[in-house]
Amino acid sequence: MEDCIFCKIARKEIPAEILFEDFDLVAFRDIKPIVPVHVLLIPKKHISSINDVTEEDSALVGKMIFRAKELAKELGIAEGGYKLLFRTGENGGQEVAHIHLHLLGGARLFEEIRPV
Ligand code: AMP
Ligand code: ZN
Questions:
Q1: Is 108 helix (H, G, I), strand (E, B) or coil?
Q2: Centre of ligand 1 from the C-alpha of residue 9, in Å
Q3: Residues 29, 38: contact at Cβ < 8 Å?
Q4: N or C: fewer beta carbons within 10 Å in the chain?
């Protein structure tokens, strides 16, 4: 994907503070953190949104969650707790059309929307 900003980060065409990389994934710090620890995990494969995940992508998405857990431990937020978030589509508030898992920690994170 030529113009996708996260594909560009994966290809090292634009800079990012990369914390982890392997054959399938890249993890880097969010440029506008909303909590003290704010990391984005992306697959190197371009997938526009969770709506476009196929059954063949299941293991890849599982790897993203596993890696988020490992990074949480390495970044010292595992014990205190953290939030993993996929925003999807317009109502989900997704701004970048390449799936990314937010790892959010280092502060108390209650739900923005709670049942009444
Ligand atoms: P979302 O609203 O779930 O699509 O989140 C997109 C996230 O990407 C936001 O938290 C942005 O701050 C973050 N972001 C956008 N551009 C960059 C970039 N070049 N490097 C790191 N994070 C970015
Ligand atoms: Zn992309």
A1: coil
A2: 11
A3: yes
A4: C
Catalytic sites, residue numbers = 100
Q: For ligand 1, is residue 80 a contact (CB within 6 Å)? A: no
Most distant CA pair in the chain, distance: 46
The answer to whether 44 and 74 have CB atoms below 8 angstroms apart is no
pLDDT in tens, 47-66: 999 999 999 999 999 999 99
Tokens of 11: 């290809």
**Residue 1 confidence (pLDDT):** 79
pLDDT at position 115 is: 58
Q: What is the mean pLDDT of the chain?
A: 95
Tokens of 32: 């506008």
Residue of minimum CA distance from atom 12 in ligand 1: 32
Closest residue to atom 18 of ligand 1, CA basis: 31
Kindly tell me if the per-residue pLDDT of 116 is higher than 90.
Answer: no
CATH number of this structure's domain 1-51+86-109: 3.30.428.10
| Token couple for 80 | 């205190």
Q: Which comes out higher in pLDDT, residue 23 or 112?
A: 23
